[in-house]
Amino acid sequence: MAGKGGMDKAKGKAKEMTGKVTGDRETEIEGKLEQARGEAKKVSGKTQERIKEAGRSAKRDRT
Fold first, then answer.
1. Contact 32, 8 (CB under 8 A)
2. CA–CA distance from 2 to each of 8, 41, 54 (Å)?
């Protein structure tokens, strides 16, 4: 789970579980938001890698 967004997802899951156990709805929601932030970072990182690969591929095709 490490890498882009992995830490946010892990911390978010821990915070969500803490909120559920303690009955703190706000902490639970914050945890879910952190997980979503982590997933967004993960998707963003994958998109950036695909863009870079497409650029490299296009450059190879021109030569």
1. no
2. 9, 12, 25
- 25-62 vs 6-22: helix axis angle to the nearest 10? 160
Residue with tokens 């929601």: 29
Question: Which pTM does this prediction carry?
Answer: 0.76
Q: Is residue 37 within 8 Å of residue 5, measured between CB atoms?
A: yes
Assigned token pair, 26: 């706000």
Q: Counting beta carbons within 10 angstroms of the beta carbon of residue 25, is it exposed (0 to 12), middle (13 to 18) or buried (19 or more)? A: exposed
Residues 13-51 pLDDT 10s: 999 999 999 999 999 999 999 999 999 999 999 999 999
